[in-house]
Amino acid sequence: LKRSRAQVQQLTAQLSMKDIDCQKLETQVSQLRNLLVEKERRLQEALDSCEAPTSLTEFREPFNDAGEVAELTRVTEQLTSMLNVMQRQLSATSSELVAERRRREALNAKFAVLEARADVEPAKATSAEERARREAVEEHLRQATAKKGGRFYPHLEV
Predict the structure, then answer these.
(1) How many CB atoms lie within 10 A of CB 103?
(2) d(C-alpha 19, C-alpha 115), whole Å
(3) What is the DSSP string of 45-86?
(4) pLDDT for residue 116
(5) How far is CA 78 from CA 72, 83, 126, in A?
(6) 103 CB contacts (<8 Å, ≥6 apart)?
(7) Cα 50 from Cα 111, distance rounded (Å)
(8) Can you tell me the distance from the alpha carbon of 98 to that of 78, in angstroms, rounded to the nearest whole number?
(9) CA spacing 20 to 30 A to 19: which of 9, 71, 115, 138?
(10) Predicted confidence (pLDDT) at residue 108 exceeds the cutoff of 60
(11) Rounded to whole angstroms, what are the CA distances from 27 to 4, 103, 145, 152?
């Protein structure tokens, strides 16, 4: 019973650590998504400015825009791959968390059964003690009634 309690406490602690890790990963995923949205917006702006120049200055510096577009594309691809990795980690952590919860529930159920047994066993011991006392009293009454020449009737309550 003590070992089961210790296991439950250990699994609860592990579950808490997994929850914290999961929250950190979710925060990172959220931040990466926001960064990705910002980079995609900047990339779209750069693509729009390359496609439809509205002044002569934009014609003079096409290489800077192309370089910026290439850089933004590279950064966007990196962010996308990082986001995919974080999503896979989040999925794996979630799976582990679900498995830990199932193990914890199973141990809690086992603990409840063991605790119920522990509660029943003292009751059994108490009833055995009561039975032994009753038998001792009945034996004493038999002997007392035998000395007086009477007969003992155990079905009668005293």
Answers:
(1) 15
(2) 28
(3) HHHHHHHS--SHHHHH-HHHHHHHHHHHHHHHHHHHHHHHHH
(4) 77
(5) 10, 8, 71
(6) 11
(7) 68
(8) 30
(9) 115
(10) yes
(11) 34, 26, 85, 82
Q: How far apart are CA 21 and CA 46, in angstroms?
A: 37
How far is Cα 73 from Cα 80, in angstroms, rounded to an integer? 10
Tell the residue number behind the tokens 């250990």, with chain if given. 10
Amino acid code (one letter) for 12: T
Angle of helix 2-51 relative to helix 62-147, nearest 10 degrees, comes to: 160
**How many CB atoms are closer than 10 A to CB 129?**
10
Spell out the residues 6+ positions from residue 59 whose beta carbon is closer than 8 angstroms to its own.
Answer: 53
Cα–Cα distance, 118 to 84 (Å, whole number): 50
Dihedral (CA of 110, 115, 121, 124) sign: negative
Residues 68-102 have pLDDT tens digits of 778 888 888 888 888 888 888 888 888 888 888 88
C-alpha span between 83 and 75 (Å, rounded): 12
When pLDDT is cut at 50, 70 and 90, the band that residue 54 belongs to is low
